[in-house]
Amino acid sequence: MTKLGPIGAATRSTEPAVFAEVEALGYDTLWLPGELAQVAGAVRATSTITVTTGIVSVDQVPAAEVAAAYTAHGGRYLPGIGGAHGAKPLTTLNAYLDDLDPVVPASDRILSALGPKALKLAHDRAFAAYPFLVTPDYVAAAREIAGPDTDLAVLLMVVPETDPESAREKARGGGLRFLSGLPGYAASFRRMGFSDDEITGVADRLVDGVTVWGGLDAVTARLREYQAAGADQLVVQIDGLPANWRVALARAFGNVAAVNGDEH
């Protein structure tokens, strides 16, 4: 069984009430942005849920600060790191991990990973890989590369919209248009079989391939495709999701207790 649990919630909120809600709904992991300042508040607002960051940038945050946060919240905070850019990103990541080794063991850290080399690094020097904007076929291929003992926590953009054009435009505006212009994501999309024209134009086929949209039943079915392909944890971006969706997705995929014992 995955160390992270089957369902995670990603939020950019800084509100303690949101952190507490995620835990109460039964999500296994609370994913914060890559800002260490939020970790303490999330740990204080909750009791047992695993807190992680997706993703602390190794180009911006010193390893010593990550190690200090890990030590301060023993057992509750598992660092998620990545974001190495420049000419030799894997060299940069390896050096950063070397600095973390004395304090944060590989068994307690997560690496952002899209390409095969990054997935192999996650296998060698972390317990989990954290890809975003990928297809179920990518997940199946990543499982082969990372091996059976590396958790795959797959971040998923969920758009609660049944109209195709509206859903796709919301996905584009929700970050896909910007990210498709970044070299790392563009290269990942090419490896998944999307053409340069589809990537540049953020074509419908690309949107449909790497995001999840539709009504609740359609979204649930699509998430199960990722699970069947080998995702150990489904990480759902909950910002903007209706309250009943947050409850329903936690119930569908996690070990969920109702909030205040109520059925929603």
Q: How many angstroms does the end-to-end distance come to?
A: 28 Å
**Portion in helices:** 40-55%
Which structural category do the helix and sheet elements fall into? alpha/beta
The H-and-E topology, N to C, reads as EHEHEEHEEHEHEHEEHHHHEHEH
CATH class of the largest domain: Alpha Beta
Task: Compose a concise summary of this entry.
GO terms for molecular function: oxidoreductase activity, acting on paired donors, with incorporation or reduction of molecular oxygen. With 264 residues, this protein is α/β, with parallel strands linked by helices. The protein folds into two domains: 7-154 and 229-261, Luciferase-like domain (TIM Barrel), CATH 3.20.20; 161-213, no CATH class.
Description:
With 264 residues, the chain is an alpha/beta fold. The protein folds into 2 domains: 7-154 and 229-261, Alpha-Beta Barrel (TIM Barrel); 161-213, no CATH class. It contains 12 helices and 12 strands. The chain has helices spanning 16-25, 37-45, 63-72, 89-100, 116-125, 136-146, 164-179, 183-191, 196-201, 204-210, 216-229, 243-253; strands at residues 7-10, 29-32, 50-53, 56-57, 77-78, 80-82, 110-112, 128-130, 151-156, 158-159, 212-213, 233-237. The strands form 2 sheets. Strands 4-6-7-8-9-12-1-2-3-5 form a 10-stranded parallel β-sheet. Strands 10-11 form a two-stranded parallel sheet. Helix 1 crosses helix 2 (37-45), helix 3 crosses helix 4 and helix 6 runs parallel beside helix 11 (216-229). The longest helix is centred in the middle third of the chain and has 16 residues, at 164-179. It is globular and about 50 Å long. It starts with 6 loop residues before the first strand and ends in an 11-residue tail after the last helix. The model is unreliable at 257-264 (pLDDT under 50). This is TIGR03620 family F420-dependent LLM class oxidoreductase. One of its GO terms (molecular function) is oxidoreductase activity, acting on paired donors, with incorporation or reduction of molecular oxygen. It comes from Amycolatopsis alkalitolerans.
